[in-house]
Design brief:
The chain has four helices and six strands. With 120 residues, the protein is of the alpha/beta class. Strands 2-1-3-4-5-6 form a six-stranded mixed sheet, sandwiched between helices. Helix 3 links the parallel strand 3 (50-53) and strand 4 (72-76). Helix 1 (12-20) crosses helix 4. The two termini are 20 Å apart.
Length: 120
Amino acid sequence: MLKLLANENIPRLLVARLRERGHDIVWIREGQCGISDPVVLIRAQLEDRVLLTGDKDFGELVYRLREPTFGVLLLRLGDLSSIDKASLVCTVIDSHADELPSSFSVLTSKSLRVRGRLAR
């Protein structure tokens, strides 16, 4: 199973569903709420976890500032219900677990875009 770090903006339902499916997931809301984005990214990288986030600022950290990362999955699912979001994200993570590490991926309700290998 994929190791994940859920940013504090990830819904509780999604975190619970991923845990039910056996994923090793750490949620920033459980103990480190309010830490800065660079610190979140560093933690994910040091622990070999794909960062799960809804925050577009991570694109700037990874691409413009060239911060190293183990991988980022950016969720752009505002038009879906919480249940549908959890279902879609779980399906994508289960079926694309090999592609997500070392990639910056963007998931919308209609597509998954996986962008190449990133510097670690």
